[in-house]
Amino acid sequence: MPRPALTAALLLALSLSPLLSGPLEAVEPNEILADPAEEARAREISKDIRCLVCRNESIDDSNADLARDLRLLVRERITAGDSDTEVVDYLVDRYGEYVLLKPTATGSNLVLYIAGPLMLVLGLGGAVFYIRGRRAGRDAGSEALSPEEEARLKEILGK
């Protein structure tokens, strides 16, 4: 096989190899619940819980040992009969609100939700006042010259 053809074949094989692998899931087969409805609930809850090791990755996607423990805990609580909100509240009580991928807009988090838009409005307001002030200063200096000032200017310019 000529060298360019071999190179092209290797590049094609390498580029297609990700398509041949199956989807990778962090949930191991021994974690899956027997009841499909409970398993679906566990997956939905797990998608909104942050892996405390991986940062900004859900426990449903993470392969960390702590994420596995949290997935098992979610499944234990569901099997025990807890509702979705009770499971989430249990995790928040145990690990803090940081465990939620989507923080609630209450308490101290409310400051974070309000501060961004408030700073934007204050910045735009400051920019408007600054621009208006510059225009007013520029317009104030553009008054017509008096006849005496015109005569003095002509004298200075030598006209």
Automatic annotation (TrEMBL):
TM spans (from-to): 110-131
Superkingdom as given in the UniProt entry: Bacteria
Keyword hit for Heme: yes
Signal sequence region: 1-26
CcmH/CycL/Ccl2/NrfF N-terminal domain location: 19-157
Main subcellular location: membrane
GO biological process assignments: cytochrome complex assembly
GO cellular component terms given for this protein: plasma membrane
Membrane topology: Single-pass membrane protein
InterPro entries cross-referenced by the UniProt entry: C-type_cytochrome_biogenesis, CcmH/CycL/Ccl2/NrfF_N, CcmH/CycL/NrfF/Ccl2_sf
UniProt keyword Metal-binding, yes or no: yes
Subcellular location: Membrane
Record-level Gene Ontology MF annotations: metal ion binding
Keywords: Cytochrome c-type biogenesis, Heme, Iron, Membrane, Metal-binding, Signal, Transmembrane, Transmembrane helix
Family: Belongs to the CcmH/CycL/Ccl2/NrfF family.
Protein function: Required for the biogenesis of c-type cytochromes. Possible subunit of a heme lyase.
Name of the molecule in the record: Cytochrome c-type biogenesis protein
Organism lineage string: Bacteria, Pseudomonadati, Pseudomonadota, Alphaproteobacteria, Rhodobacterales
